[in-house]
Amino acid sequence: METVSIKTPLNVNVEMAHAGVGRRLLAFLLDLLFIFIYLWLINKIFFQWLGLDQGVFSSTDIPEYDLDVFLQVIYLIFLLPAIFYSFLTEYLFNGQTFGKMICGIRVVKLSGYRAGFSEYFTRWVFRLIDFWTGSFMVLFFIPIFGENIALSMAGLMTMGTGFVAFFLILRTKNSQRLGDIVAGTTVLKIKEKQSIDITILEELQEAYIPRYQQVMKLSDNDARIIKDTFMLAKKGRDYKTMKRLRERLEKVMDIQSDQSDIEFIDTVMKDFNYYTQKL
N or C: which end of the chain has fewer CB within 10 A? Predict the structure, then answer.
């Protein structure tokens, strides 16, 4: 299984399974299908049911003329969700379009944090290069070959759609297209079912006595990343990662512990849960 190295805010590298070209391509095609269905419905409503294509701007009657203009404005507004589809869905659904949901993949930041507005917007902007370069290149052929030949080449050029993204995902270290590289993101596989073991909170006995009050230097997001990293390393018997995680925690918390790596990290998580539940 090919992996992506995610460097967490605690300076610990975690190996995660990347989505791969196949899953990303399938998600892309599914999203295109959803966009096509949406556009088909919108065009059916406006052109067949409302007659937007009948006499637009040709009526000499001012009220009808105004109605035609009004319908065109509304039509353009309804096109916006299709234009901004990937940006809107990834922003609203935490890094997933509907196609990504079906394929079980998600956009994440290489820093270990969730991607945000700027990252999703950057990825959307660079889709023009990553996915549609082949289609737009036909515009450069018109002055050279003439409109007829250029348009006849449009079908072939459209086959180049996604070539840039496909090539970069295969060739870059973290399986990133250009938009991912600029935004600092990648796309990972996600589990269909989330195990209770990767949640931050744990059951603590009523008589539990915390050991490290310095855990209050950690944020909620730090604790989540520590927990996820610890569980993955423990499951994979990645003792090297656990040692680096322990060293980083000791530095952040400014302590030295005589516990083993596993015992120390486990205690840190329990202490964090203890103090946060008391707040």
Answer: C
